[in-house]
Amino acid sequence: MRVVLGTSALLVVLMEPMRTQRWNIPIYVALTLYSLYGLLIYHLSVRRNPVVANKLIPWLDLLWYLPLIAFTLRENSIFYYFFFFAIIVASFSWGLTEGLRLTLASAAVYTIIGVFSGKGNVPIDHNRLLLPPIGLLIFGYIIARWGGYHTELKNRLKLLKDVTIFSNPRFGIDRTIKAILESVRAFYDAEACVLVIPGKPGDEESYQMYRVARGIYTSRSAPPEIGREAALQFLSPSLDYAVIYRKNQSSYTRLFDVKTRQFSEANAGSGDKLAGMLDAKRYLSIPVYYRHQAVGRLFIVDGPRKFDSAAMEFMLQLMDHVTPVMENIRLIDNLASDAAEQERRRIAHDIHDSVIQPYLGLQFGLSALDQKLEAGQPGIRANVQELLDLTNHELAELRRFVWG
Q1: Per-residue confidence (pLDDT) for residue 126, from 0 to 100
Q2: How confident is the model at residue 256, as a pLDDT?
Q3: Read out DSSP for 64-116?
Q4: Which residues on adjacent β-strands are paired with residue 296?
């Protein structure tokens, strides 16, 4: 698109040169260089060079447009529309915030160039000065919102994919939960994620606390267990509510009833207490359900952006998807443990029948041989041969058992 923009604008200017002839050559040069710059970006993108994924690329486009706008502002500049290309790239690549920044910068740059270009003998038309920045702000905001929504949906789909990949019974329940929490933490760029759930389904006396944090290696060890009294501190308020909490000059706690789908304001005291326990300035807390019954809570702590109702709804849907998977993995773990225990018992029984019993017979034979030796009875050699045959037979059986 950069090549198309540069070459098409160059053709238009060549076919219909500007009335101010002294700016034609600089514009030709600038558009030619911009087209070559577009070819370079295209070449890098085909080779999947990480440079093209840098947030500075749309800002470089903005810098390219500055001389073109400055040279043609007094006429009906076609280069004004180039700003929208940079805004689209920023919005659909990095979301709402980056799109709004480029929108504001484009409108400010256009206005500043217009003000300084109006210091000549012929002042610039105020309508021409004010209407384009207003159009940039309006349509730039719409593009940024649209691009931000597109980027958010793309990131959510990626998170769902990651959660599905991590939901593998081979990893075990603890590793799976920690991997899912780390994906959620990275998605919101939060400082930490905390999950408090019962150690076993239906057990309300013992809870487990899973925690992942930015820059801290996630160990494979089992999470710490906490008692019911400690867990209740994290499970408040009622598990029928999701909570948005933030604290600036004052505390703000907003509750969302997951059954009635209604918002309400809450006393900030409970939110302050939880924020102190989590060492958080803001957090999003949602209930975790198992078989349509709330059993625990998930906390997303101190993300760079404010948590809103859309984030709450998405996390509720995500946990509805994740919780059955986690329970299935826990069930498979239990089945594997039971199978291993049964296999150990079977092996122990086989060892008793295949190894211990024959050696008891060998022990009895040696005792009888010892008594014959003590009594000085004849025919001992035949008894020794029987014992050797028994030993060889049992060694063969033992090798077969070990191989099996």
Answers
A1: 66
A2: 85
A3: HHHHHHHHHTTS--GGGGHHHHHHHHHHHHH-HHHHHHHHHHHHHHHHHHHHH
A4: 288
pLDDT of residue 228: 81
* Most distant CA pair in the chain, distance: 140
> So what's the pLDDT on residue 98?
92
Burial call 239-261: b when 16+ CB within 10 Å, e when fewer: bebbbbbbbeeebebbbbebeee
Q: How far apart are CA 312 and CA 9, in angstroms?
A: 46
Helices (H), 189-308: 228-235, 268-278
**Cis amide bond preceding 132, omega within 30:** no
What is the tens place of the pLDDT at every residue in 46-103?
Answer: 998 888 888 899 999 999 988 888 877 665 677 888 999 999 999 999 889 999 999 9
User: How far apart are the C-alpha atoms of 224 and 233, rounded to whole Å?
Assistant: 16
Task: Please name the residues in contact with 93: beta carbons below 8 A apart, sequence gap of 6 or more.
Answer: 53, 55, 58, 147, 151
According to DSSP, residue 291 is labeled T
Q: Could you give the dihedral angle defined by the CA atoms of residues 369, 374, 376 and 377, in that order, rounded to the nearest 10 degrees? A: -30
User: Residues 272, 274, 278, CA angle at the centre, nearest 5°?
Assistant: 115
C-alpha distances out from residue 92 to 47, 116, 150, 261, 363, Å: 21, 32, 7, 31, 82
The whole-angstrom separation of Cα 283 and Cα 303 is: 8
pLDDT at 124: 58
User: 29 with 57: CB under 8 angstroms?
Assistant: no
Name the strand (E) or helix (H) holding 194.
strand 192-198
Going across the sheet that includes 251-257, the strands are 225-227, 206-213, 192-198, 293-301, 282-290, 241-247, 251-257, 262-265
| Cβ-based burial of 61 (10 A; exposed 0-12, middle 13-18, buried ≥19) | buried
Which residues of the chain fall short of a pLDDT of 50? none
Three state DSSP letters for 158-189: HHHHHHHHHCCHHHCHHHHHHHHHHHHHHHHC
Distance of alpha carbon 18 from alpha carbon 130, whole angstroms: 22
- Average pLDDT over the chain reads 81
CA distance 100 to 111: 17
Q: What is the pLDDT of residue 146?
A: 94
Q: What was the pLDDT predicted at 33?
A: 92
